[in-house]
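Deviations from the work plan: none for this task. Representative record:
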Amino acid sequence: MNFLPYAVAAYLLVIGLYGIVTSRNLIHMVVCLSVVQSSTYVVLLSIGFRSNATAPIFVDIPVGTRAVDPIVQALTSTDVVIGVTVSALLLALAVQVHKRSRTLDPNSLSSLKG
Amino acid sequence: MSSSVRSTVFFIGAAGLAVFLLWGLAGLPDFGNFRGDYGLLLNRVGVEQTSATNIVAAVTFDYRGFDTMAEEFILFAAVLGTALLLRAQREEEEEPAEDMAQDRRPPHDSDAVRELCLGLVAPAVLFGLYVVAHGHLSPGGGFQGGVVLATAPLLMYLAGEYAGLRTLSPRTVVELAEGTGAAGYVGVGLVGLAASVSFMKNFLPLGRPGDLLSSGTILVLNFAVGFAVAAGFVLLLTEFLEQTLEVRRRSRA
Amino acid sequence: MEDLAALGVAIPLVTAALLSGAAVFLPRRAIEIVSIAAAAVTSACCLLLLMDASESPLVYWFGGWVPRDGVAVGIAFVVDPMGAALAAFSGVLVTAALLYSWRFFDAVGALYHSLMLVFLSGIVGLCFSGDLFNMFVFLGVLSVAAFALTGYKIEEAGPLQGAMNFALTNSIGAFLLLWGIALLYGRTGALNLAQMGESLGTRPDALVMAAFALVVAGFFIKAAIVPFHFWLADAFATAPLPVCILLGGVVSELGLYGVARVYWTVFEGPLSSVASELRTILLVAAATTAVVGAVMSFAQHHLQRMLAFSVIAHAGLFLVGLATLTPAGLSGAAVYMLADGLVKASLFMCVGILQHRLGGVDEYHLRGRGRRFVATAALFVVGALALAGLPPFGTYVGKALIEEEAKLLGLAWVTPLFVLVSALTGGALLRAAGRVFMGWGPPIEHADEVSQAEGEEQEAETVAGRERTPAVMFVPALLLGAAAFALPFVPGLLAGSEAAAEAFTDRTAYVEEVLAGEFRRIPAAPAHAGPKSEELVPGFLSVAGALGLAAFTLGSNRLPSRWRRAIWNSAGRIVVGLRNLHSGHPGDYIAWLTFGVALLGGAFGVALR
């Protein structure tokens, strides 16, 4: 049980990469990239977790109550923004590729051989 | 490479990657037992030093506010990049969105969708502003609130009011808002530089923890970020919609 | 003075934001002037910081959050001479690129200029940062700007695919880096480089090795080390020339800088016990990269792609310098990177001039059409010779310093490697110069592997002014080339580089400065005599090799056909196989990336034993 969150994170990374490598559609590839990214969320948040602890919000609980690590949460929210922005760019590129080549299949895109 | 060779190379790599990841992860402290001096310290002193009760917001906008500024500019660059990539090409032109099937009966529109979406626009804006404004007190903040704000135009589009959407958020105003939000963030940092010791210093009065008007520059930065994020997402949305609905190949006539 | 560190990032960012907001109201000339001014001011800030940091490094805590009880609470910028030099160099290149694109580049409002400025701020932030997550974020800033700029020419399929491959591989690289950061945070509870280094102890274990492998993989992807290099050729071949100037001159160097910085501040403690194994692994990666890049470069006839592969090859050579894990090797690598970056930028500008005047960058397509361009031809040939390591260019000096250090470490194969790689990359360019500017060499019918698509004319990226080479294009190219020549003669440069390298590799001093605020003066190194004269032999050998290879391929149709067939059957097959690996398919690239990460992790794991 203790190792499960970390194993899940590793699994997400590998399965996301698998999706990208075997993808037949550029949009699918972008979504698989976000799976790879979600593995970083899971690993960050799992690392910062403390058992029997609450969120680091001290509005209605006294300072000093056992709380989870706030740093990884800030890191994760930064990570989410970065992931969204990269996905937006990749999707824009995919739209234009489709307009140019009438296909979204990476196997048929070959102007960069050699 | 053929797809079978590719898969073979990948599987060998993935197996190796999985093994060494798990082996490395095994060296981490047990799940739930994290020590982390940095986090423990900030949980203890955060409220007293910044008057923000949401320590994650204190970390994001004060202790590590510089990171957030850089992240804000990643968003800015991505929005600019999308505008660059989805611009109308020389052989295309932008036509205003028009109903291509004016002479035919429109497909049956769902009144429920339309009314629900339009009805949710105002609450979305209100909720977004609430999340932005209370970021230093409870979960939320500029990024989260900004995204909620950006759903308002999306709801309008879903309700079928694309033309109304374009009128309410003209391109120049939204671009100006985005640029201002981003510049505003850096501006707050620069004022800190000029006014006192350091770039990004929290130089406004801190107030009492738990008050809405507290935590100094954290509140201001939340708004700057909320502004910039909302404008950025609206720009992204309109870029993609424009590409689909408005950009057409130039007619040969 | 320390405030300049913050301004180095703030000025380009705020200018970019204001420009994009006000773009509708400003004429093009105003936008260009403002952006060039911002880039120039940033470069000036970095130069001032370099001069100040050469005496002792500067530490700047953002938000005024200084460390408390040895725990770093905020984010620090630690400006040391190496970082400041890289930042200043990048600033100069961005200014040159913006100048180069004056008036003629087909800019879209202020989007291009804003993105270039954001790119610059990302570089400056990465170079100065003393916090690993902050480095990651600034890497993201410069990457996102680069992705957008690479896909600039949306009217062709090539740039779009190039940008996609670039964005895909580099994002995965960033996520791998983040995985490494997460593991390190889990162990040390810190994000500050100095604090992490303090907490990691002196013996490596599985987690430290895994984290190191992931962080190195992330940075290697950026630096285009084999097998993570595939994206770079695609991106360079298709990006607009001003962007190539930056990508070629800077991005690889930044990736290697990241590796060096993280190793010397965080990992040197635990990993010094396995230093020799580490050295071997890094040297293998470096040598493979150098050879693959050089061979592929020679096989290209698309000038931009040829230069792209030579960037990869030289990144391998830089890594050899870094892999020695000594200050002298680091210093040699730094000098080499600086000179090489200047020469590459100058060469890209020449290629851009050809693109602008003749509308294409394919060697066969342009055959003989460059006869009138005497000045550009001269600059191009000189650049090619400099790339091959012609003494006394800065490239020669850097290479010689690395070769000397390698000999001291008993690595006799380094000098022949450098000679081979420089001969191939320089030779490729000299061959291209011969063909384009003099019309030598067999015409297109005799070239076996040229595909129809590669001979197509490229879409023009410039507007108007095709009759003469504009001064704004030629003058920066000339100045950069001249700077590469003059570099070794700058008084105190070599000594300063040695001193800077010593400071860079001194972990205890770094930790004291950052966490305890105790600064040490950087001792001035004694005047450097330059490389030993026996290094002139490999230097001239590389140049001779380059000229020989160029002459050989240009005159190849005069050889008897028996010889030609023999060469084709041996070397030609390998080259074709290698070229087929570079398929442009993103799935292939990611498969190799995964394989490479696993290999790196496995190698480091074995080193642990």
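Chain A touches chain C at residues 13, 17, 20-23, 26, 29, 33, 36-37, 39-40, 43-44, 47, 71-72, 75, 78-79, 82, 85-86, 89-90, 93-94, 96-97, 100-101, 106-107, 109-114 (CB under 8 Å).
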